[in-house]
Design brief:
Helix content is about 0%, strand content about 45%. It is built from no helices and 11 strands. The strands form 2 sheets. Strands 2, 4, 5, 6, 9, 10 and 11 form a 7-stranded mixed sheet that branches. Strand 5 (about 45-50) and strand 6 form a beta hairpin. The radius of gyration is 13 Å and the shape is globular.
Length: about 130
């Protein structure tokens, strides 16, 4: 089992480039593929980005491709979401999630594929 804690959210200006972090507990972080999701007010939670457990493969939602970068530091048991050129429509609660897997190169985009979730961190982008 793994516990996830997100940080790095807050109130930012359009065009800013904050970085979200998700720290995982335990020593088995390298066994999990990781993902970021977000939920905007009045909308369903949606996929943002995913990274394989080895870190060599990533996948992004079209809405963030070219602006967001997901990465992981297995030594620190942490996954990051670098967000550049933020827009007001990026305002949402951002969640990280973990999927225990034996595949070193697979990324996962569906919520039901993830077993563990963080509490979320609010990102509010003002125009």
């Amino acid at each position: 089992q793994v516990q996830l804690v997100e940080s790095g959210g807050g109130l930012v200006q359009a065009g800013d480039s904050p970085r979200l972090s998700c720290a995982a507990s335990g020593r088995t972080f390298i066994r999990y593929a990781m993902g970021w999701f977000r939920q905007a007010p009045g909308k369903e939670r949606e996929f943002v980005a995913a990274i394989s457990l080895r870190g060599g493969d990533t996948y992004y939602a079209d809405s963030v491709k070219g602006r967001f970068t997901i990465s992981r530091d297995n030594a620190k048991s942490t996954v990051y979401l670098q967000m550049n050129s933020l827009k007001p429509e990026d305002t949402a609660v951002y969640y990280c999630a973990a999927n225990p897997t034996n595949s070193g190169s697979t990324t996962y985009t569906a919520q039901h594929q993830y077993n563990y979730w963080g509490q979320g961190t609010q990102v509010t982008v003002s125009s």
